[in-house]
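Thought: the user wants the 3D structure for the chain below. I'll pass the sequence to the structure tool as-is, report back what it returns, then summarize two notable features.
Action: structure_tool
Action Input:
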Amino acid sequence: MERGRSKGPQHRTVTALAQALTLGDSDREELIELAREGRLRVHWTPPADLCELPRSVDDFTGRAAELAWTKEFVRAGASPGVAGVGVISGSAGLGKTTFAVRAAHVLRPRFPDGVFFLDLFGMSQRPLAAADALLLLLRALGVADQRIPHDTPGRASMYRSLLWDRRVLVVLDNAASEEQVRPLLPGGGEGRALVTSRRLLAGLEGVRRLRLGPLPQREAVELLTGILGDRSAPDGGSTLIELTRPCGGLPLALRIVGNRLVSRPGWSAADFVIRLADEERRLDQLRAGDLEVAVAFGLSYEQLADSARRVFRRLALVPGWDFDAALAAVLGESSIGDAWDALDELVDLGLLQDSTSGRYRFHDLVRLFARDRLQEEDTAAERDAITVTMTSWLLRTATTAGRWFEPAYGRPDRPEADPAGLSSLEDAEHWLRVNAENWLGALRYAASSGDDSLVLDCAESMHWFSDRWMHGPHWREVFTLGAEAAAALGDLAQQATQLNYLAWVHSVPPDNPDAILRYAAEALDLATRSGARTQIAWAYEYAGRALAPLRRFDEAVVSISRAAEMFKADGDADAYCQCLQNLACCFRDDGRIEEALERFREACDLASDEGSGMTPSIATLSRPHTLVRIGECLRLLGRGDEAIAALTEGISLMERLQLSHAMYAGALESLAAVFADHDRVEESRTAYARAAEVFEAIGDTEASHRCRDLAAAAR
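Observation:
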């Protein structure tokens, strides 16, 4: 408060003071409420008796679609049975009041009997009572004080009767609740009302609703340009774009940035970009006179129950961009039901954004505000403790989810407590994908904290799942952290395992043969020293896989054959089948197509034989891969009809398994080429176009362009 950074004492400070003064319960509660009211008092100004509409800002920008909505709302309201009430909701700083005032000025010609504005002070601890609001509105409508009823129902009845045959628009700004605003709504007839509120006011029936969101970047730049006027030209458009980004499309933040620059001629926009780049100080920079982003958010925060405040603050610790109720329950140390209630309250006040998928996220500036509240109201020990709890939960859940993809998962000897209640492989895959940034952030935190066992367990559990999401961008980091954790634990065998996984990461197209050879050599050394026979075999397999693209085919065949012999001797049919496929690829790339076809068919027969000893799930994945390779070999041998049959069957199996990756795209491209060979033009064009889509989805732009060009060239 002394530094001018706050308008009143923080809740934590007041609580500590009450404890030091040994106040009784009632006195303690009174002190806390008075302190909270003090923070809000600066925002209270008595409304004008005549409810005059405020001026509209000259540099109002954008919101064309929303303004069109208000015009349609007025037109539609003239129809029987259609509501004459529009509710405009949205979080703090989105410019609801500015928008409503602008809309009212635009609509004024449609309301010759008057346009009135009334601030209901919904964010105050003492919102304007409905009876007092009705008194002000009735006076504005020309009713003498002696004629105004003393009770709320009587005032509401008179108010509705006056609006019935008058073409009047009433803007009810900053509504606190349905209870406050219901008596102020027209009951029909000619009168209309626009209500703004941070809350959704979901209990209001028969109203039309508009939810304001952040401004698109183009409109944000236009708004900032309008505020800056002549100041915007020297800095150039690119600098203005950089200025708008930290504001996240929030009109209040943009207004503050523009006002600060205009009021300080010695500042440059480029210097202010640097200031805003510092997240630790960003909210401090977003302050100009009595405009302050943090205060706007704080008014909403003060409305929350203590449990919702705690969840709100702690959600700032989430590593990723979004989260669900299960994670909110962990952070709030509550039941899932209580977490839903807290999240609903936060969404209702615009402090969180929700989605149809059941996930929530912060606006970037609201996240910074939540982080500031966490720093102010929770001790370092409390923050550390809840971070450890969250990290542990995320990694235990991720580890359990990853193990759903292991061949042995679900057997009687693999019981596992599931912290997130995942009940199927589909649940596990969905959780891992949508929470990737969260569990990866937890993995980083655990690694930096030296919790090596937790890191290694999680990294190891991802091996089989990574095959299903091979183009995920984070596997290099996951297995690098796993290798470092194994090294810290002195576990050479596990370190070799993680290094082999890294060799696999670099074999995913576009592959990096040199990196594969480097990791495979390190893994071979560690596996040999620790006697980890399986990892020795895998190191040979990965080395051979890297040698083939370097056209060192003889060395590749020797290395992969050595791995195949070891896997076969150990009874590992899964790995043996993979070696057969890689051997076949070597033969194919060396022009030995008949030998390649023979090996691919041997691998396909192995995957199709229920008595082969292969894990069913791995056999299911291997069969479409081998069928595609068989089709490609048959094409090279000029056996087109057989090639089409094999490729079509392999692609069909991949689609059934939802395997949309590089091999699927390559299979579509191969099928398109065979169709083209046989002048089946339309089928070729369709297959090339689909291949282009898949290549684009996995980030292979070059292959996508190639297939699009081939599709366009098909005649």
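Final Answer: Structure generated. Residues 64-211 form a domain with the Rossmann fold fold (CATH 3.40.50.300). The longest strand covers residues 192-197.
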